[in-house]
Automatic annotation (TrEMBL), chain A:
This is Iron complex transport system substrate-binding protein. The keyword Signal applies. Transmembrane segments: none annotated. Residues 27-278 form the Fe/B12 periplasmic-binding domain. The keyword Glycosyltransferase does not apply. InterPro entries: ABC_Transporter_SBP (IPR050902), ABC_transptr_periplasmic_BD (IPR002491). Keywords: Signal. Residues 1-23 form the signal peptide. It comes from Aliiruegeria lutimaris.
TrEMBL record, chain B:
It is found in: Cell membrane. Coiled coil: none annotated. It comes from the Bacteria. It is a multi-pass membrane protein. The keyword Transmembrane applies. It comes from Aliiruegeria lutimaris. Keywords: Cell membrane, Membrane, Transmembrane, Transmembrane helix, Transport. Gene3D superfamilies: ABC transporter involved in vitamin B12 uptake, BtuC. Belongs to the binding-protein-dependent transport system permease family. FecCD subfamily. InterPro entries: ABC_BtuC-like (IPR037294), ABC_transptr_permease_BtuC (IPR000522). Its main location: membrane. This is Iron complex transport system permease protein. GO terms for cellular component: plasma membrane.
Amino acid sequence: MRHPFLIAICLGLALLGAGDGQAAPERVVSINLCTDQLALMLAAPGQLASVSRLSQDARSSSMAELARTLPANSVRAEEVFLYNPDLVLAGTFTDLATLSMLRRLGVRVEVIAPAYSLEDVRTKVTQMGGLLGREAEAAALVAEFDKGLAALEQPNGKRPRAAIYEARGYSAGPDSLSGAILAAAGFDNVATETGLTVGGVIALERLVMLEPELVVLPTTWPGASRAEEILQHSALRELQRQAGTAPLTDRDWICGTPHVLRAIGGLAQPRTQLGGAE
Amino acid sequence: MTGYRGLIIGLSALVTALFLTSLLVGPAGLSPLRSLNALIFGADGPITLVMREIRLPRAILGVMVGGALGLAGAAMQGYLRNPLAEPGLLGVSGSAALGAVLSIQTGIVAGFALALPLAALGGAALSVGLLLLLAGPRGGSLSLILAGIALSALAGALTSLVLNLSPNPFAAAEIVFWMLGSLADRSFLHVALALPFMALGAALLLPLGRGLDTLTLGEDAAEALGTRLGRLRLMLVAGVAALVGAATAVAGSVGFVGLVVPHLLRGAVGARPSRLLLASALGGAAMVLAADIAVRLLVPERDLKLGVLTAIVGAPLFLHLVYRTRRGEL
């Protein structure tokens, strides 16, 4: 989004903040896709030693290009330890065996939970800023995020009913990040009508009976899987034909970073189409 | 003869009843009358789509997969004269799954859809051929089962390996599907893929009845009665491979159907292999339809695998057969 701009801010503030007595970590290794991206946004030059391999993959990471400027790790304790880090950033779902091994080896490990709402995005950015000793940069990023979000605010009006439908028939509910993106873009989530909160499986025939006005589908992965075959089902195709077309969910939907603004922005056009029709 | 005709009519009625039940069971909770009306005449709203594109192909596939597995099991048992011969247990389904997984993960299927059943058929044919070679014409229980265990383990391991190496994050979880089978969310695309191969397999196996009957008297007697054993064996391998390959390609490996059904029906047909073929096909269809209805009723939100239920019914029976084999009664 605004990488050069962000980097410029970071550089400037780093120079200002130099010599500030706080013991900020000097060699940080991140081993989770989402902490990778938050750290890439906030870390001082040279502070981040390595990011996980997943964040260098443009299919899953919104910051693949920037991530490729750093060495990648494969989220294994031995490999991470060899970077001699003074802080390791992990996610809630990182393998517990890896984390306990790193702790046994005396490395400080901080676990950051995934974001489930837009408020969480602010919290995560602030939390990351605190961990890296980059509070000012984090505050600036939150302010920028709020500005971007305000610009995307949908005028009041009809809220079309939409569904997010993923592999295996998993549907994101209102209390998930994807659900928050959908709500912020001005849609009601049909998963709410089925009683889902964070998310869960909605059988294809129930989805068809719910008659959503928009179905948001994921970008499929390379290789093939039966889990994703449901996305090609003729009944879903027919539903798509009757409902509005939506952009596919992608890397901007995965992590609670300010990049979710792009995902919200992508839904503006289908929202206008559906709102204008009736 | 009337007893046999009655049995076939009774089994057909059972399959029809289960087929209708399968159409009426689903998470959407539609009223039976409205849904049947929408299925046949069409109706406004999404209900027609649900009935025609989601439930109908699933029920049809249940009949096809069950019929194929029942028929293949009965034919293998007839030829090997061994009630333990079953596509799932002997690794034929597993090998078919390996073929299917290879064709999907190498991306061949994306360009050429028929590659999926063809590759599964290839895997199945290879394993049936190997089994007949290893077990010998008499189909001794020990060598047959040992060969089957080895083939199952190898096919399962290679399937897992291919799926673990896939760049797709969902692929590794799919090992469960290929090992246990499921009919969830299958569409008419899958019906169309499997149908020609299953029809071919049935056309190859059903006429073998007389040959299999003569084989119960021993190979020499069978040849004296005009059965050409080489041709019989070839048609058996091709037919079983086509049926099991097509069934596995669209539904994963559903085990134990070819074991339980012929076993239950053998008494009713007077242990004649020729009569067992059609009866087992119908019985297999009934068993898979019933299992598929049960998975939707027991835990509707979970996509319970078909093979879980067939194994719960089939494994105790298998143990019973093994026990009898040990006592030398077979």
